[in-house]
Amino acid sequence: MNHSRRSLVTAGFGLFALAAAVIIATAGVPSLVNYQGRLLDNAGDPVPDSTYAVTFRIYDDQVIGAAVWTETQNITVSGGLFHVLLGSLNPIDDSVFRDDRWLSVEVDNQEILPRTRLASVPNALQSGTVFFAATDTPLPCVPSTRGLLYYDGSQNEPCYCDGTNWRQLDNGGLCGPALCLDQDADGYDPCNPGDPDDTDGLPADCNDFQPTVNPGAAEICDDLLDNDCDGFTDCSDLDCGCTDLDGDGYGVGPCCASGDCDDTNAAINPGASEICADGIDNDCDGFTDCADFECGCTDADGDGYGAGGPCCVGPIDCDDSDPSIYPGSVEVCADGIDNDCDGSVDEGC
Known about the structure:
Layout: H1 2-11, E1 17-18, E2 22-26, E3 29-38, E4 50-59, E5 67-77, E6 81-86, E7 102-107, E8 110-117, H2 121-127, E9 129-131, E10 134-135, E11 149-152, E12 157-161, E13 166-168, H3 176-179, E14 297-298, E15 307-308
Parallel strand pairs: 10-11
Antiparallel strand pairs: 1-3, 2-3, 2-9, 3-6, 4-5, 4-7, 7-8, 11-12, 12-13, 14-15
């Protein structure tokens, strides 16, 4: 366990994404803060599932200041997510929240910055119990509001301000109106027309960080992306698969193992035999009639006479494996062979 922690600290932790917490408090009674977070490494990936010793502190200043409350808990992290009740080991007195406060999170003595502002807590403790309000019009997310939380009512998402954009707690995606901005400038935003924040009235972009991916794009069949956002990728997409219109067992399409060169004629396909005088590439090998190997002549024994298909012109070699046997050769008596390819054996002897 210690080795794992040291490795994580060496890599460096990323931002704790903060949940829209429920504050449970009653005046004069120590309060509990229901706190959810997400622990990432510096590559933006969830840390390994394990149990981590995490120290929580509440400060009276965003950067330096003094800690007005401290508690260390052993928390279980799964998929980077965790949930704790702050104050369950060291109760939080309501006097802690008489002014704005900032929550600090430390793992193995390393503080994860920035601290999270707990601006809503003082009013919460005055009323006893409070939920972060759902709204579709949060305050602008700027450096001075970094760490603030709100609940996006239309998206049903708890969100936090990273200093520039409101982001979803669970996966870091954009929240609220920013969620529907066209980030990759391909003409499609990531919201559907039914979303109140939708800006274009078009189907949602399934990857708003890749301009070659949107509902209006053509599927590219070898890039491992769902370019047209139909839920299918590369050869699993109908646009890239095979269609066999003539039912001969051979299809057309960029993902076909062996393509049919004419999918309207069942007699033409890569498994057919070449017909040597019909002017058609019957076997789809790119050669037609006498230009096709099946129809032309081959001189395997190099004696100047060929054998093979019907396109051979002139005398045909009756044995294209023996250079001594060809039309016009001298007949050898008593060898039992038609040496001159005239159809007779040992004639003239």
